[in-house]
Amino acid sequence: MPIAGACPYFVKDKGDGYVYCECARFRFPDKKARRDIIYTYCAHPDGYKECVIKKVMDQYYERKYNGEQTAQHKYAG
Predict the structure, then answer these.
(1) Dist. CA 37–CA 43, nearest whole Å
(2) Starting from the edge strand earliest in sequence, which strands make up the sheet with 18-21, in order?
(3) pLDDT tens digits for range 4-58
(4) In terms of DSSP bridges, do strands 18-21 and 25-27 run parallel, antiparallel, or are they unpaired?
(5) Which residues does 43 contact at the CB level (< 8 Å), separation at least 6?
(6) Residue 52: which residues within 8 A CB-CB, separation 6 or more?
(7) Residues 2, 50, 34, 24: what is their CA dihedral angle, to the nearest 10 degrees?
(8) What one-character-per-residue DSSP string does 37-65 give?
(9) 57 near 9, Cβ under 8 Å?
(10) What pTM does this model have?
(11) Which helix (H) or strand (E) holds 31?
């Protein structure tokens, strides 16, 4: 059964054994493993903050936007 994610990087769960994040597609060995991860991280109101994928994506966007701002200021002057 598809679920709604709390994580901002959660894209979809089609219920076909795959779960999609903004940067990855996960396939779980069984329904229990999938459920444990989804309800501990992706769909948990606070648990998603501890997900390693979310942390990596946060760092990526921080680098991306800080780098763009730095580059813009560098060329503006």
Answers:
(1) 9
(2) 10-13, 18-21, 25-27
(3) 568 999 988 877 788 899 988 999 998 899 889 989 998 898 999 999 999 999 9
(4) antiparallel
(5) 3, 4, 5, 6, 7, 10
(6) none
(7) 80
(8) HIIIIIT-TTGGGG-HHHHHHHHHHHHHH
(9) yes
(10) 0.71
(11) helix 31-37
> How far apart are the C-alpha atoms of 61 and 51, rounded to whole Å?
16
Instruction: Please name the amino acid found at residue 44.
Output: H
- 36: tokens are 């444990």
Domain boundaries, the chain: 10-76
**Close Cβ partners of 37 (under 8 Å, ≥ 6 residues apart):** 19, 26, 28
Length of the chain measured in residues: 77
Residue labelled with tokens 């059964």:
1
Q: Which amino acid is at 72?
A: Q
